[in-house]
């Protein structure tokens, strides 16, 4: 008789077994990634959820999810599953479904309207699991580029726009510019992102562009050490904005150039971002600056209990 599966919040003592289960799947130990994720959850509990499934008192599987509320142009809280694993001896026993349901319950309590994730298109087993769990392809593209310098742009050649690191003093100007672009007040979102950028355990970069002492654009990115099963550090560009009155002046390009320079001192090998396929101007900018399709597919599923609501973008 199979023992009943139970779930609970993941805790610091679970680190070793989580690393071991993950190593079975990807072939290498990613302790630094999971240690940082746990540290981030301890510093900002509202920023994510992590659960384990147990059978007979032994951890059989786990899952991590971030809570995003504004990244990649989002307009509502979403849960993003970026790490999931099952012990090889517990495969096909409902463990992955159990941790998924536990995540969904926790995320629904935090106001998340949908679950998202990414899967390498060649990972047929994981893609099939998410398909059986009710996920579908999302209207979003996963794009990436290497850290090579930006391709030449005749329109901005020779121009040097000042870009510097973001500080707490920039918050009001950032919120004001974002409101001008989105017609929304996202003060809480940017206060959280700025605090994250200034926090010691987060490898995050936040940049602003200025002209004539006026903030004209900003960018935020983080370096991840293994989300979505990646085995190499990757920079994730999740926020970029330019004042509508200053578009066409190379501000977004200058911000991205500075990001690439900053990343040279880290171990990241590429920059990844997401964009809604309907965001034509943004996609055009990303294409001009060297981004192209990743080999990853984006999946989405409404969270149970809010399925009747209109999904976020």
Search tags:
2 domains; disordered C terminus; 7-stranded mixed beta sheet; alpha+beta; 313 residues; 8 helices; Aminopeptidase
Describe this structure in words.
There is one protein chain. This protein has 313 residues and is an alpha+beta fold. The chain has 2 domains: 6-138 and 297-302, Aminopeptidase; 143-294, Aminopeptidase, CATH 3.40.630.30. It contains 8 helices and 14 strands. It has helices spanning 15-26, 31-43, 95-109, 124-132, 171-182, 187-198, 251-263, 280-288, and strands spanning 6-9, 48-55, 58-68, 78-86, 114-120, 136-137, 140-146, 163-165, 204-211, 214-224, 234-242, 270-276, 292-293, 296-302. Strands 1-2-3-4-5-14-6 form a 7-stranded mixed β-sheet, with helices on both faces. α1 (15-26) crosses α2 (31-43) and α5 (171-182) packs across α6 (187-198).
Question: Quick gist of this model?
Answer:
The protein is α+β, with helices and mostly antiparallel strands and 313 residues long. The chain has eight helices and 14 strands.
CATH class of the largest domain: Alpha Beta
The CATH H-level homologous superfamily of the largest domain:
Gcn5-related N-acetyltransferase (GNAT)
Structural class per helix/strand content?
alpha+beta
Radius of gyration: 20 Å
Low-confidence stretches: 306-313
Fold-level CATH name of the largest domain: Aminopeptidase
Strands, count? 14
CATH architecture of the largest domain: 3-Layer(aba) Sandwich
How far is the N terminus from the C terminus?
Answer: 44 Å
Q: What is the number of helices?
A: 8
């Amino acid at each position: 008789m199979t023992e009943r599966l139970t779930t609970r919040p993941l805790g610091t003592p679970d680190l070793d077994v989580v690393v071991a289960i993950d190593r079975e799947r990807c072939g290498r130990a990613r302790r630094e990634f999971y240690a940082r994720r746990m540290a981030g959850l301890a510093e900002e509990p509202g920023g994510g959820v992590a659960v384990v499934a147990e059978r007979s008192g032994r951890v059989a599987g786990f899952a991590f999810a971030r809570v995003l509320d504004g990244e990649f142009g989002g307009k509502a809280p979403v849960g993003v599953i970026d790490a999931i694993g099952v012990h090889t001896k517990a495969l096909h026993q409902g463990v992955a479904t159990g941790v998924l349901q536990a995540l969904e319950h926790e995320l629904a309590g935090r106001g998340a309207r949908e679950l998202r994730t990414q899967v390498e298109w060649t990972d047929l087993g994981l893609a099939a699991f998410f398909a059986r769990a009710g996920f579908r392809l999302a209207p979003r593209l996963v794009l990436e580029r290497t850290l090579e310098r930006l391709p030449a742009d005749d329109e901005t050649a020779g121009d040097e726009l000042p870009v510097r690191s973001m500080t707490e003093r920039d918050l009001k100007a950032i919120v004001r510019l974002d409101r001008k672009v989105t017609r929304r007040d996202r003060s809480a979102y940017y206060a959280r992102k700025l605090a994250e950028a200034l926090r010691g355990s987060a490898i995050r970069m936040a940049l602003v562009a200025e002209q004539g002492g006026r903030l004209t654009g900003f960018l935020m990115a983080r370096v991840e050490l293994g989300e979505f099963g990646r085995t190499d550090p990757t920079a994730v560009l999740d926020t970029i904005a330019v004042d509508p009155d200053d578009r066409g002046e190379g501000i977004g390009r200058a911000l991205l150039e500075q990001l690439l320079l900053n990343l040279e001192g880290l171990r990241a090998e590429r920059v990844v971002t997401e964009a809604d396929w309907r965001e034509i101007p943004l996609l055009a900018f990303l294409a001009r600056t060297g981004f192209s399709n990743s080999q990853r597919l984006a999946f989405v599923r409404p969270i149970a209990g809010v399925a009747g609501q209109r999904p976020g973008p």
